[in-house]
Every structure is written in structure tokens, then in C-alpha cells.
Amino acid sequence: MKVIHLVLGKANPDRMNGVNKVAHHLAMSQHELGVDVEIWGITKSPDATVYPRPFPTTLFRAQPFYRDLEPKLLHAISRQKKGTVFHVHGAFITDFYKVTRLLNDLKIPYIYTPHGAFNKVALEKNKWVKKVYINRYEKNILKDARKVQFLGQSEFDHISTIVRLQNKVVVPNGQDFGELEFDFHTMQRKAEPVFGFCGRLDIYYKGLDTLLDGFASYCQKGGEGELWLIGDGPDRPKLEAQCKSLKITDRVQFMGARYGKDKLNRIANMDLFCHPSRSEGSPTAVLEAGALGRPLMVSTATNVGVQVEQHQCGLHLRQSNAKSIEKALFTFLKMYKENEHPQLGERAREMVSNEFNWKAISKRLIEIYSAKG
Fold this sequence. Notes:
The chain is of the alpha/beta class. The chain is built from 15 helices and 13 strands.
């Protein structure tokens, strides 16, 4: 069996979106398990330097929606031998629609992972445009896939309101502990404890407006500590203005985009990692923070809330709003003062190691690739 992971972009896991990172780790893990694997990227920069891997990485030129696939890509697909399976990562991408139609014609099976694109909240943004696109394109991709991999239960459940699928399955993302190696050093803090977030500063998806509202209410009622926000995005000015309006600018630090060991060290200096998302597939930042031994405060939409409860490694926000966040912060403050948070962190690391192991996830997907029908 040969597996080709298809992504949008240059297929680099560093400084790239979570989808590219997931495809990279899946492919690396499957390669280690003895699978013949490749990564293909569709990008506007096909001549870019490819990320070094022990297996082929090939880049193809992205095309406007009104053009056919690049001839080089058409040829590469047509020459695949029997036993090849494609794993397509990402939704609402016209080139992927064209690829899957060709795969279907050639009777080459493919697995489709939308990476959270069909969560209820995600579909509310540009609702009518997405509805038209789904009816015209995505439904065909979903129905013709050997399996559709959803990263969490919320998306798995919600897809039934759009299209009825018999070929759907829940398989989460994983975490590579090897990429979390760094030299820890204590960072200066204004106050204790430190609550933190790391990710794209997107108000709509990440629920950062509710995080600030909840933190502000917590502060006004005597709550201690400060909030660190790692990341950047178009909503940063709005969030900074919200902090000013809430009079918490002295309690919130915007740290900007951080990468590599610098980012990891900042997360490791947090006492509670907060992720109150309205919509996620499987947030890599939460798994990183848990693997770094940080207690977690997560919304149900992150798709890890149940595991956080089961492993008793943090706080599950079943209602992700300002009031519930305020209450959770006070709950953690009590734990912090009673020095219970180190045990939470140890259990968070154990949870990630047991529940989100790349090798186990890769084996599960290999079974799916091999299954007929």
C-alpha cells in the first residue's frame, strides 16, 4: 500500500497552519511503521524549497477555480498504481474537488479530513456562500470518500444536518513529544497565576472575546493573576481595544506570534492554558500545552473537554461564556493557592500521551486505508 497525503500549501510543518503539521506528523509516523508514504502540496509557490523528510515531498502549482489541474499534477495522479490511497486534508478548496473527481474516475480511493470545517459554528461564517459550495462540490467529495475522518464528536454529529454519511469516523489528531524539547527558563511575570492562550487571534473561532470578558469579571471581583496571549491575527486591534474598554490592559500581555523554543517556553511558564473556542477540529495548541504539563481550561468545542474531565487535568467549559470562564478561573485560583496545579499538569501530560499518541492514531488510519468500501 502507498499513501499520499495531499495538503494546501508548501507542506511545511514549521510556521505553517495546523493542517500541514498534522499531515507531516501522520506521514512521518506512518513511514516509521513501514508504509510507503509521500506528501503532495498544492501551492502558489511550487518552486519553494521543500521540507526535508525521509520520503518524497512534491509541490504542484495551485490553479484558479476556472482552470483544470496543473498538467504535472494530472500526470502524477494518472500514473499511480493499484494500491495507492490518497489522504486529502482540508475543505472548501477547489483544487481538491478537481483532484477527488479525478481519483473517483480512476477508481483510486481517498480518505477525506475536513479538519473542523463542518463544525456548526465554522459553517456560520459566510453561511450562504458555504451552503452553495457544499451543495455543488463538497457533498460529492464527502459521499465518494472511502472514509471521512472527523477530528471530534461535534463535527461528526453535525454533518448529519448537511448530508447523511455511512462512511464517517472519529479519529483525533496527535502530539509528537519529540518536537517539544527545549531549555526551560522562568520568565518574569507581573502577577500570579498566569493564564494563557496560544493560537490565531481570531475572535469568532477562538472565543477570545468571551475569554477577555470572563477574565475582566474575574479581575473586578478580586481575582489574582495575569493573562498572556501568544499569537497574531486580524482581530488583534479589536482585542486590544476590548482590553482597554474593560480596563484590564495592565493585566493582559499581547506577546505576538512566537515560534519554536520561544513559544514552547512561554507556554511552559503558564499556570493554566485557556482555550474557550467556539469551533475547532482538534486544536494542536491544547495538545502541546497538555504535553508540556500545563493544566487545561477548554470548551466543549475543542473536542477534548471530555478527556480533560476523565483525566482530571483541568476544567471543561460546557458553556463557553464569560460567566463560566470567570467561575473556572476562580476554581483554578483556589487549586493554585492550595498547590494542586502541579498534579493537574502531570495528568494533562499523561492524557496527551495516552489519548493522542501519533503511532496509535497512525495505526488506526492505516486500518482505514486498507479497508474495502
